[in-house]
Write a structure and sequence with these properties.
- The chain is α/β, with parallel strands linked by helices.
- The protein folds into 2 domains: 4-208, P-loop containing nucleotide triphosphate hydrolases (Rossmann fold), CATH 3.40.50.300; 219-390, Rossmann fold (3-Layer(aba) Sandwich), CATH 3.40.50.300.
- The chain has helices spanning 10-18, 26-36, 51-65, 84-97, 115-122, 132-140, 157-162, 166-175, 191-200, 231-241, 254-266, 280-291, 325-332, 353-363; strands at 41-44, 75-80, 105-108, 125-130, 151-154, 181-186, 205-208, 219-225, 247-250, 271-274, 297-300, 315-318, 342-348, 368-369, 383-385, 389-391, 432-434.
- Strands 3-4-2-5-6-1-7 form a 7-stranded parallel beta sheet, sandwiched between helices. A 7-stranded parallel beta sheet has the order 10-11-9-12-13-8-14, sandwiched between helices.
- Helix 2 (26-36) packs parallel to helix 3 (51-65) and helix 13 packs across helix 14.
- It is globular.
- The structure holds adenosine monophosphate.
- The site of adenosine monophosphate has 14 residues, from helix 3.
- GO terms for molecular function: ATP binding; hydrolase activity; nucleic acid binding; RNA helicase activity.
- A motif (Q motif) lies at residues 1-29.
- It is an enzyme of class 3 (hydrolase).
- It comes from Ectopseudomonas composti.
Length: 447
């Protein structure tokens, strides 16, 4: 299949040739003809599948071929995204794909001054990419009008709801013309998303390009068990030992991000970070520096987990597992994109076994465990089973290693003087326990 056979016009085909996009990805070959015809769309597609071009190309084409000219303060196509980073990235895609077209594209999001955005909107823009909160601010101040709106795209709808934008979205939807085309993209489809789709879409084409909630196949994933307090030490050890190149590292908290960044900088490793406490310009700068290869390590909280497109990122490391199992899929989706392969390594401590089991349940695969000599944890990570179960280790007699004494038999990798049996002092859990769902549904559940 070629892009020409999908019905795209010459200026877009020229751009795609310049970008060396040779064949459409599955989401593109399904979405482009339908969107060109004006159909609504409900697409289950993760980032990395080429979904942005899947909506941007046909939207640009329709705007080019169909009038009218955009009036002041108006927008003709609106793309809503959950995060500022994704808004900026989607804008870049529109600018790139639309480079030979007489259309204007712009992005608005919070964390930066609103005045330049109001000024820019005065002339009207053909494509506006926006985060819901800032867009609502602009709308309430009459800086943006939707009279000419013909297409609405909801990108990463599930993430927008996760981030608590439901009220803003409702208010925005009620301000939009009823007659319009709506395209909804979501990595996962909870009942709430389905309900939203039911209210917003008219006879949509459903497109599903990767198994729901499945982690990208091109990513090799495994975990290294480690004690909680030794995680950053293990990360620094692996970084040097394995001679890692660029790495995107996810930590659970802003504090954890800052700490690792400081340790890396103290070691002379170039590092930057992204988290919700940082002002927007420094978040964007960190991402740009990382993309440009000026920074070796980017440490981030989950704010960076979705939507970021970083070319050929070879490695993602989870310093901590995410609380929400679906975020794991998004995090590791930063690597192994658009046909390349990648690796995702998780440093997992005993406390995280429930999160681990939830991830394995969601992805329906057990993560291979690889011990790192010298980092075998004192607190073992209990075994898990597909289906979200945590299997309790058989009870063993307590043993302590006396520093300086010989290694116990059969414990080849154990660090002398650090080895204790798993902490047995805690109350016993049942032999098999179900993990909390972390907001996700088991595979095979109602879509
Ligand atoms: P997305 O899923 O939209 O974030 O896109 C993932 C990456 O794939 C981006 O870097 C795109 O530039 C790239 N891409 C999208 N479509 C194609 C294609 N048909 N051929 C090659 N690369 C593509």
């Amino acid at each position: 299949m070629t892009f020409a056979s999908l019905g795209l016009i010459e200026p877009l085909l020229r751009t795609l040739a310049d970008l060396d996009y040779q064949t459409p990805t599955p989401v593109q070959s399904q979405a482009i003809p339908a969107v060109l015809k004006g159909r609504d769309l409900m697409a289950a597609a993760q980032t990395g599948t080429g979904k942005t071009a899947g909506f941007a190309l046909p939207v640009l084409q329709r705007l080019t071929l169909e009038g009218p000219q955009v009036a002041s303060n108006n927008v003709r196509a609106l793309v809503l995204t959950p995060t500022r980073e994704l808004a900026e990235q989607v804008l870049q895609s529109f600018l790139s794909y639309g480079q030979h077209l007489p259309l204007s594209s712009y992005a608005v999001y919070g964390g930066v001054s609103i005045n330049p955005q109001m000024m820019k909107l005065r002339k009207g823009v053909d494509v506006l990419v926006a985060t819901p909160g800032r867009l609502l601010d602009l709308y309430r101040q009459n800086a943006v009008k939707f009279t000419q709106l013909q297409t609405l795209v909801l990108d990463e709808a599930d993430r927008m709801l996760d981030l608590g934008f439901a009220r803003e979205l409702d208010e925005l939807f009620s301000a939009l013309p009823k007659k319009r085309q709506t395209l909804l993209f979501s990595a996962t489809f909870s009942d709430v998303i389905r309900q939203m789709a039911g209210e917003l879409l008219r006879d949509p084409l459903s497109v599903e390009v990767s198994p729901r909630n499945a982690a990208a196949k091109s990513v090799k994933q495994w975990l290294i068990p480690v004690d909680k307090k030794r995680k950053s030490e293990l990360f620094l050890h692996l970084l040097q030992e394995q001679r890692w190149g660029q790495v995107l590292v996810f930590a659970k908290t802003r504090k954890g991000v800052d700490q690792l960044e400081q340790e890396l900088l103290a070691m002379g490793v170039s590092a930057d970070s992204i988290h919700g406490d940082k002002p927007q310009p420094s978040r964007l700068r960190a991402l740009e520096r990382f993309k440009a290869g000026e920074v070796q390590i980017l440490v981030a909280t989950d704010v960076a987990a979705r939507g970021l497109d970083i070319d050929d990122l070879p490695l993602v490391v989870n310093l901590d597992l995410p609380i929400n199992a679906e975020d794991y899929v998004h995090r590791i989706g930063r690597t192994g994109r658009a046909g390349s392969t990648g690796e995702a390594i998780s440093l997992v401590c005993a406390d995280e076994v429930d999160q681990l089991a939830a991830i394995e349940n969601l992805t329906q695969q057990l993560l291979k465990r690889v011990d790192e000599p010298d980092f075998i944890p004192d607190h073992r990570v209990p075994q898990t089973a597909v289906g979200g179960q945590v299997l309790k280790k058989p009870k063993k007699p307590k043993q302590k290693l006396i520093p300086g004494a010989a290694k116990p038999a059969g414990k080849g990798n154990i660090h002398l003087g650090r080895w204790f049996e798993e902490e047995d002092a805690k109350p016993k859990a049942k032999a098999v326990r179900k993990v909390p769902s972390f907001g996700s549904k088991p595979k095979g559940g109602k879509k």
